[in-house]
Design brief:
The longest helix has 18 residues. This protein is of the alpha/beta class. 32% of the residues lie in helices and 27% in strands.
Length: 228
């Protein structure tokens, strides 16, 4: 379980307060959505929950580990060991093939069976292609495979379909949801799209640095049932 207690985060020497005392719990194996308007603090919350940044106050517990007691070296080790990331930007190395881009994630976990995940996302026939030879949806699927090749406990996603058209976006969300159900990892996605929230177990709505509302979906929709 991930637990945040009164988490605060500011920038510009405290002049810009972004998180104003966030408290939440996310169960193991859950799919949680963090949503809100631009500037509401949702991406900053993802950054501190995942250990990309340290909070200025409060506590973040990741299972038995306390992220707020870790130094930068310890946080780096924690991220390598426990979490995967998928962003709107692909961040693929252009000179490496699909196989080698995904292997970068696999090597962090000593995963020798990483091609299994490439096959799961439907890219086994593109194994030797470079990113420039792939469509946007295919590049995002390489990112998914690279993140999951680490076998992370928690997968963090920041607007993963923001740069994709509707059909491709639905397919990518479908791949992610199917893999999460199959592998049982916790998934935390940041999005401004409330339609995507209908796929989640739990929804956290943010406004001006605070949690304005949380709720659970009694019935979850698939990527092909939601609006767009």
């Amino acid at each position: 379980m991930i637990i945040a207690e009164n988490v605060k985060k500011s920038y510009k020497n405290g002049a810009v307060e972004v998180l104003k005392g966030i408290s939440l719990k996310i169960s193991d194996g859950a799919f949680a959505i963090i949503t809100g308007a631009s500037g509401s603090g949702k991406s900053t919350l993802m950054s501190v929950l995942s250990g990309l940044e340290q909070c200025d106050g409060g506590k973040i517990l990741f299972g038995e580990e306390n992220l707020t007691e870790m130094n930068e070296k310890q946080l780096t080790g924690f991220r390598r060991r426990e979490v995967g990331f998928i962003f709107q930007q692909y961040y693929l190395l252009p000179h490496l093939s699909v196989d080698k881009n995904v292997r970068l994630g696999a090597d962090l976990a000593g995963n020798k069976n990483y091609r299994e995940i490439i096959e799961k996302v439907g890219l086994i026939e593109k194994l030797n292609c470079k990113p420039s030879e792939l469509s946007g949806g295919e590049q995002q699927r390489v990112c998914i495979a690279r993140a999951l090749a680490k076998n992370p406990r928690v997968l963090f996603l920041d607007e993963p379909t923001g740069a994709l058209d509707e059909a491709t976006g639905r397919n990518v969300l479908g791949y992610i949801a199917d893999l999460q159900k199959e592998r049982g990892f916790t998934m935390i996605m940041v999005t401004h799209n409330l339609n995507v929230a209908e796929m989640a177990d739990a929804v956290i709505k943010m406004n001006s640095g605070i949690i304005a509302e949380t709720y659970k979906n009694a019935v979850k929709k698939t990527a092909f049932e939601i609006g767009w």
